[in-house]
Structure formats: C-alpha cells, structure tokens
Amino acid sequence: MMSRLKALFSSRAPVIGVPYGFLLLFFLLPFLVVLKISVSEMEVVTFKDIVTWQEGVLQLSLKFSNYLFILEDPLYVSTYLSSLKYAAATTVLCLLLGYPFAYFMARAKPSLQPALLMLVMLPFWTSFLLRVYAWKGLLSTNGWVSDVIIGSGLDQVLFALGLIPAPGKLMNTPFSLVLGMTYTYLPFMILPLFGNLAKLDLRLLEAAADLGASPWVAFWKITVPMSKAGIIAGAMLVFIPCVGEFVIPELLGGPETLMIGRVMWDEFFSNNDWPMASSVAVVMVLLIIVPLAVFNKYQAESQEASK
After folding, report:
1. pTM of the full structure
2. Per-position pLDDT tens, the chain of length 307
3. Looking at the 3D structure of the chain, how many domains does it have?
4. Does residue 13 contact residue 257 with C-beta atoms inside 8 Å?
5. Number of Cβ within a 10 Å radius of residue 117
6. 185, part of any domain
7. Contact by Cβ (8 Å): 126, 133
8. Is 163 part of a structural domain of the chain?
9. Rounded CA Rg of the chain
10. C-beta of residue 253 within 8 angstroms of C-beta of residue 163
11. Is residue 4 part of a domain?
C-alpha cells in the first residue's frame, strides 16, 4: 500500500491533478451555479428548484426563454458583436505596441532587463480604478493628452475614421474606450512575449544570416514563427478579459460603446433579473470558451501531425 502511495505521489498525477482541481473549484463549480440560475424561475428574491420530487414523480423544470430572447433581441446580438469588436481591436493594438517592446527587452543587456520588467509592471502598483480615472481627466477638455491630440490635428483623423463623433470630442467614444483598454492590458501582452522571445535560440538567426537572409527576412521567417506561443498567450490574456470588461466602458465609454459587461450589470443590479443576467454571462463564456477549445484541438492535431 505504501509503495503504491509513493508511486502515486512521485508520478505526474499531482502535477496534473492540482491545476484541474483548481479549475474545478474556482471555475467549473461557480459556472454551474450561474448556469443553474440562468434556467431557473425567479421568485422575488429566491429561485425555484429546477429538480423537484412530488408524489413519487421526479420533475426537471428548465427555463430557456432567456436564451431565446438573447438570440432574438437585436440589442443583445449587437452588444455581443460590439464587445468582440472592441476586444479584438484592443488585442491587435496591444500586439502591435507590445511586440517591439518585448523584443527590445529580450535583446537588452541582462543587467538592464530587470529595470525594463519593473517599468512594465509599475502600473500594477497603482489602483486599476485610479489609472482609469486618470485617463478620464487626460482625455477630458483641458486635459494635456486632449490638448496634444487636438493641437496636432489628430482629432480630425480620428473623426474621419469614425472613432469620435466630432473633432475635439475624445471622451465617451470608441477611441477613449479602446485607448483605455489598450493601456490597461498592454502589460499582459508584453510579459508572455518577453518570456518567449528571451528563450529564442540566437544561433538560428546567425545561421539565417550566414545563408544570406537579411535581418528583416530572418525576423519574419524565424523570430515571429518561434514566438507564436507567446503571441497566442498574450492575445488570450488580453482578449478574454476585454470581452467582459465593465469598469473601462463605464468610465471612458459612452452610449455608443455599449459592451456586454455593462448589460450584465444592468440586468443584475438595475433590473434585478438574475436569470437573464446569468444567461447573458453564460453566452459570453461560451463565446470565449468554444473558439478556444476548437483552437486547442486544432493545435494539438497539428503538433501530432508534425511529429
């Protein structure tokens, strides 16, 4: 018996079991609770049991009208699409800004890298709410960021692109929303990219140079493909929380930048309709989980095929 226990604890079972146990306790069980509420009937402040036993008859009562309403109501459909659009735009901007910085960090002197990492993580030392409020002041009238944008004529470009409703109006616009989310989640893109690029074998770049490849060709043919794992990890760390973001759309967005996080807040606390709010949350989770599961399956199949 003791030998079996030693073999169990010395094997890979604990290494695999602990993360799965964490996910079960802190993700799956709460998600099942939300799923149960979404198909339940609400009675003032309580919910009807979905499973009842009366006179020897087991009854299962599930209410799917909330999900049907979400699919039929154009407001919810447009809100989901808007959330995905702003999250995708933020992810692309974070990648375009974060990749050069992560590349520079990975190629910097080892003595300089801790200072650069500290600069990336420095915003986390300040409250998230205070940082968002700071952008609200910077983009408002007489804010110095607003003055720079208007003085340089960039507001005319933003207006031509449809990111602001009128020249000079920067707050409560798609521009202010995406800017706030990009600033907030940029470190989540830089850190996994840096971890991936720092492990890149530089001998591959030397070999490419010996074979006549220019630095630009070597970058696209070697560095970018080798950093694919970091790009995917950073994109997921940015995209997933951006889809359900509430604070930034509430403070920096406006009526034209409606996102699903604000809709859930209204359903929970303004309308006090917990089943409807839970249905909105379940659909949002499925919109994120299903593509991730399909992508992971495709990734695993491609890795097996390459072996």
Report:
1. 0.84
2. 555 555 555 566 676 777 778 878 888 888 888 888 888 887 766 777 787 777 778 778 888 888 998 888 888 889 999 999 999 999 999 999 999 999 999 988 888 888 999 988 888 888 888 899 999 889 988 888 899 998 888 889 888 888 888 888 888 888 999 999 999 999 999 999 998 898 888 888 888 888 888 888 888 888 888 888 889 889 988 998 899 898 899 889 877 778 888 888 888 888 788 888 899 999 988 888 876 776 677 666 656 655 5
3. 1
4. no
5. 15
6. yes
7. no
8. yes
9. 24
10. no
11. no
Range of the domain at 132: 73-272
Position 279 in a domain? no
Residue 249 has which token pair?
A: 């759309």
Question: Any bridge partners for residue 59, and if so which?
Answer: 52
> DSSP readout, the chain?
-HHHHHHHHHSSHHHHHHHHHHHIIIIIHHHHHHHHHHTSPEETTEE--SEEEETTEEEE----HHHHHHHH-HHHHHHHHHHHHHHHHHHHHHHHHHHHHHHHHHHS-TTTHHHHHHHHHGGGGS-HHHHHHHHHHHHSTT-HHHHHHHHHTHHHHHHHTTSSSSTT--SSSHHHHHHHHHHHHHHHHHHHHHHHHTT--HHHHHHHHHTT--HHHHIIIIIHHHTHHHHHHHHHHHHHHHHT--HHHHHH--GGG--HHHHHHIIIIIS--HHHHHHHHHHHHHHHHHHHHHHHHHHHHHHHHH-
Buried b (16+ CB within 10 A) or exposed e, 127-159: eeeeebebbeebbeeebeebeebbeeeebeebb
Q: Are 38 and 275 in contact (CB under 8 A)?
A: yes
CA dihedral 64, 69, 72, 75 (to 10 degrees): -140
Tokens of 24: 């079960």
| CATH code: domain of residue 137 | 1.10.3720.10
Place of tokens 């459909």: 77
